[in-house]
Amino acid sequence: MTDFAGVRGLFPAEAPPTVISDSPAVLERFRGGGFSVASIADLAAGAVTPPVSAVLAPAAPARHPMPALNAALRESAVLLVPLLGFASEDRAVDYFFERLRSLDFAAACEKSRQSLEFIQHQKEPVAIGCQGRELRVALGETLDVFAPKLAPAIARGECISIIQFLEIAMVPNDAYDGFTVDGDLLCEGVSIAHHLHAHFEAGPIAHKAWGLLQGEYAAGRFPLTLSVRDSAVVSIRNARGEDLLDRVLPLTDPVYRGRITEFAIGSLDPAATVDWSVNSQLNEPAGGVHLGLGAGETGAHIDFVSPRATVAGLAA
Q: Which of 85, 93, 178, 255 is deepest in the core (most CB within 10 A)?
């Protein structure tokens, strides 16, 4: 799939999406790709007519949510791409643009549906393998799955985060007994996020976490091996066998610190075009599975991604 057919197909046929952002780089890049564009400031101020369909890509430091912006888009079909929660420099914008160009949302939704059905009917622990490492995830009776979108469509009045189309993510329930993770996972890359509403608090910490792990990647010390016992991370070893755990954990939220906060199955295929040197949300669901540390509220949410991991019993 090319030329943004996948993302355009999410919206009502009569209304190609307008790209809305507070980043001149985003607006320039998508205008050059044939999209109508509008700034967040103009839309919030009522200077432009709210579009029927929109790709909303906040990228500049600001408080979110913005009441005026939400009010302007309340009747629009909106795909949210929170670049600010990951990275929004020009290189990250270019990478997002190129990755979005060929995303097949229909295929991703079908894979998500298969993964969800597999999880719902799985009685034994989920077995995951990757290059000699093994991970097992036991599922509890009460399992919280984060709002998956199983049909490639956004209706007017809906605001859907792009990641909802691209993964099946299990998150802790109140009792922290929805799933239990044990074993080892080989991780080719990471994706590091923080919530938009906590940008000024959590953003600098997430940026520090990215600097730490990107430094390991740039030095050729990936893949990492994440070792987990009873959902607690006991080590994060780089390719030289050095344990990074004591450096990583202080950069995550105090709540659940050291405990797995997400187990997810990616709904995209592994691809040679994935660039782990860019902190992109579109790397997170790039095949296989990923495990998360941190909540992104007061620190970093770090996804450790194993794109070539296989889930026993789940079709590739």
A: 85
- Write out pLDDT tens, residues 68-124: 999 999 999 999 999 999 999 999 999 999 999 999 999 999 999 999 999 999 989
pTM beyond 0.70, yes or no: yes
CATH class as words, domain 5-103 = alpha beta
**3-class state of residue 293 by DSSP:** strand
pLDDT value at position 91?
96
Torsion of CA 211, 212, 217, 223, to 10 degrees: -140
CA 315 to chain CA mean position, Å: 22
SS3 string, 3-24, reads: CCHHHHCCCCCCCCCEEEECCH
Q: Residue 2's pLDDT is what?
A: 66
> For the chain, which residues make up each domain, given as ranges?
5-103, 109-145+167-311
Distance (Å, rounded) from C-alpha 198 to C-alpha 163? 19
117: its two tokens: 């059905």
Which residue ranges of the chain lie beneath pLDDT 50?
A: none
Q: Quick one: angle between helices 90-101 and 24-32, nearest 10?
A: 30
How far, in Å, are 45, 130, 161, 183, 188 from residue 75 at the CA level? 16, 45, 16, 46, 40
